[in-house]
Amino acid sequence: MPRDVNDTRPYHSPKRAERAAATRSAVLRAARDLFLSEGYAGTTVAAVAARAEVAVDTVYAVVGRKPALLREVAEAAISGTDHAVPAAQREYVRRIREASTAGEKIAIYARAVAEIQDRLGPVYLALREAATSDADCQALWRTISSRRAANMRDFVADLRATGELRTDVSDDELADLVWSTNGPEHWALLVHERGWTTERFEASLADTWTRTLTDAR
Predict the structure, then answer these.
(1) pTM higher than 0.90 for the full model?
(2) Would you tell me how many other CB atoms lie within 10 Å of the CB of residue 45?
């Protein structure tokens, strides 16, 4: 049935939305592949468009300029989706908060970090390299790093509520200890450089955090 020309309601087409989502996914996949293989400096928006088989203007329309592409690739790697997901809305965060003991919370987070770093680690390293020469990337690196540090303070506060956290170290220091070991550098040293499996990395994180954060040392 034709739409009334006087109808001012926004038009919504499920098929159009599906096509737009598929295009965005293709652009982000292409950008990720090129950032990892060619580096940030060696990647152009034109190359991303060519790999995604879309027009350059489409890349600008669905994501944006090259700094925006890297930001969205990083956010997608963190969330495991094609868009950013706030920490409080992530499924593993919900499970951490529902867990009753520090050990359970730590085990859930260790698994989440190990799984996320398989996606995020290479992207983070590309972002860190780009941050040395590009102001936009440097700002993005600092933003993500600061956000992660703030999230670790929330994590430690949640652990503190169990009554199992050590009392001889401040929560800020404990949060910094988690922050330093859940980052891409730690993952890169053990998994990328030393050849650890995801499972071994996960077990090591859980063991390290249990010994470092709780009274069960």
Answers:
(1) no
(2) 20
